[in-house]
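User: Write out your own:

AI:
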Amino acid sequence: MIAGGVADLVVAVRGAGQGSGVLLGLNLVLTARHVVDGSGVVEVIHPSSGRPVECEVIWADQALDAALLRAESAVIGAERAAPLGRPRVGRVALASPLSHCQIVGFPQIQRYGNQGDDLEYEQYRGTVLPMAGRMRNVLVCELDVPAADERGSEVSPLAGLSGAPVFAGAVLLGVVTQVPRSRHHLRIEAAPIDAAMTSVRRIRWNPTFEEVTDVHPKDELFEARYAQDLAAQYRKTEIFGIEELGRTESRWDLDTAYLSLEAEAATPDGHQEARPSAQRIESLLKTRPRALLRGQAGAGKTTLVWWLAAHAANGTLNMKLAQLNGLVPFVIPMREVYARGGRYPVVSELLSAGRVISDDAPEGWAGRVLEAGRGLLLVDGLDEVPPEEREKARRWLSVLLDRYPETRCLATVRPDAVEEDWLRSEGFTELTLLPMSDEDIQSFVTAWHNAARSEAEQVYDAHRCGDERELLTSLEQDLAHQLRQNPALRDLARTPLLCAVICALHRRRRGLLPTTRWSLYRAALAMLLGGRDAARGVPRPDDISLDSDEQHALLQRLAIWLVRTEQQQMTHEQATLQLDLAMRDMSQIRAQATPERALRFLIARSGLLQERTHDAIQFIHRTFQDFLAAKEFHESGYVLELLNHAGDETWRDVIVLAVGHATRTDAQLLIERLVQFGDVVDGREEKWYLHVLAAHCATSLLSLDAALMEVVRGRVRALMPPRNNSEAGDIAGLAAWAVELLPGPGEKDGPSEFFTVEALTRIRTADARQKLKQFALYPGIDVRVPIVLGWVHQPAEEYAREVLAVCRNYSLHVQNSSQLAQLSHLEPISHITVDGSYTAEELDAHLPTENVELLSLTNNRKITHLDFLRTRKQLQVLGLDLPVGTLDLLTTLAPLPSVRHLELNGLRDYTDMSQLPRVFPCLTGLTLQLEEGAAEPPDPKVLGAEALGALFGHQLRVEVR
């Protein structure tokens, strides 16, 4: 967590004597050399377990009097270790005394219990004297008060403190090595951590040394409060539809209900990475310190930002993102930043840019955090800034990150709001959130109904609760069935927002659901505005009664003002003025309330407006704002005004939605003008945007003049094939309508076939799969990679049987259980990678037994044995992510003589390498990927080709990463 945790790093060390030590990782301990020198057995004990863990000394330096120990198992569990994050280390960067330091350890004098040998922490306050040990490269600390009165005793009151860490705040400076004589136990000498780490050189951990010039005790206290504030603000999010009896029950706890989404990374040339296209967002963020995340409205961008902020601050991210634990999040909601005047925050204003209530940060705190490389900048909604202001926003972010280069950053934006590689020069990797897979939709539906059942427990009596829970279980089963049987409904549920809307409507309507995007929005608004208070038993506030149509009319006026002014928030004064103008023609409403009271009613009762700060009002989601604004453009007769903004990406959704609201005449005119605008522009990018926008408008209508539809179809066909990843995504958004426009194999030569296939893989129809089958069978072109990577976007069974079965592919990447179940239906695959957690029994049931030459098992935390490999007689290459960093999986495995190359990832414990020749007697190549935080052996030759070759009795190629 971002504050505290120092005590959890301290352990007792038992060797030649008893001393102390500090954890540098799950099984790495730094201590004083003389504590363990000459000892046959070395053990460490953490107070949380009281269990001795045997260690080996893997490095020792006599001059520094420091030693590094590697425990045979984790000293503390992963769950306890994750909140600690990576230990902060630093060096004193000034010559004057550094006060407010501390030493924490287990001196012998601090014992309790009947036998007087139970451990207890002791804490000493002191001042580091940088000049006192400079010639000897020793860290000298002077205690504020003597350790104890030692009269009558020959034993030092500081005995047992050797190896104890010296901290400046939460920054580790070194470990105690000795207490100089004739100093009345006021002076303590230590080995500096930077000298020790530089000397070790073999730790798989690359720390950032903080330059310590002062200790700020108030920082740690403030960070503890700040972490609590972040949790209170960002650990829960509104779950649409779980609000039958009030907003308290509609808050979705992200601790338990967060749904990990899939995303894909793009390479600089716009192609997908050669590795699997879809990965969980946590896996992608782990290796990307700076990322620009693109995603459609409602795709979950903001929810991800909130989840990261709350959990990183409180040290509760899982091991996959444990390196973010301990970082200090700064959430920058660009919508609110711009609404406050368009001035982007300087360092001292980063805290106030978000929504936390902490406003008493110590002076200079934010700068110190960023200077130390501890910042996690979360910039949410760059598209919420008007287009003409986005370059200014980019420069602000660029300057900030250039000044603090160690700062991690995640920025979010809608797909087309900024050009590709917009932040490439700042070191950002581009990621794109993918539509939810069928399995993710099912997981979301389950989570939504679990939240609804939890709500029932809180608000109903026991009898009513039982009935409601039973009903919800029945509804969940029915909705799951509908989603499986109805592809159109399933495609509507591809974003978390719309999936939640579907769940809520299904519950309210007892199973009856709309089938188009427009009818879904209308039904959602009707549910929110129509009779919510009556259904929830809420009395009318101040005798104001506005029906659904009246609320619609007022909300539409607010929405259209926000769209026209290209703002995302409005002040109370601005909102009141717009309502005053609207109510001049609404005598029934004006008779009941003033504009101020009507605004209060809408905020309190509509469920569509919210106050983010004391004077900032916005819609709960931009999707609803755009839908209401589009409806107002239609009803007020301003539809043609939209043509003035045809080329502006921020108006795109409003234009498409407005066509759905418009009369047939107006809709046809809008589409004709968009086609004409596209005809007269010269650049392909502008022509593409306008003609594809016309196609989106045309396909949103139930009926359109056949001649005009053919014109639109012709314009889009003329743009084919797509030339980059962005164009492929645009065309795929047109779904089934676009399939016949995309060229088939051989119709268009060149690399564009890659993007044609990519677009087809994202269209979940039988016609798209049929065309993909043609590509798979066509001689002379090789698009097997995008075809195989596209599996994740398609229904697993249909795609496997209709496309992959004829693909003649030798390599396959399995990313979910639905795909795993299809392997038996495919032609023999020689190279298989299975990503995710499955039991050995599940893998044995589905992996083919014949022709498998390469098998890689990644990110598997369930597997406990590898016995199923014995029936894969042709296996030559095996890759394993080791769940616990040891070779325990191999203990009971019978020999596999066919395996020639072995790759072990995440290795921590390499002491039992002698198992390898028994299990893999014919091995000729070995790749070892040591886990971050693992230590290499004292003698690098231990993992060298000569030493390992001697174990096998033949020559071996070895690579250690």
Remarks:
- Confidence is low (pLDDT under 50) at residues 243-250, 269-274, 531-539.
- DSSP finds 35 helices and 34 strands in the chain.
- The longest strand covers residues 52-61.
- The radius of gyration is 32 Å.
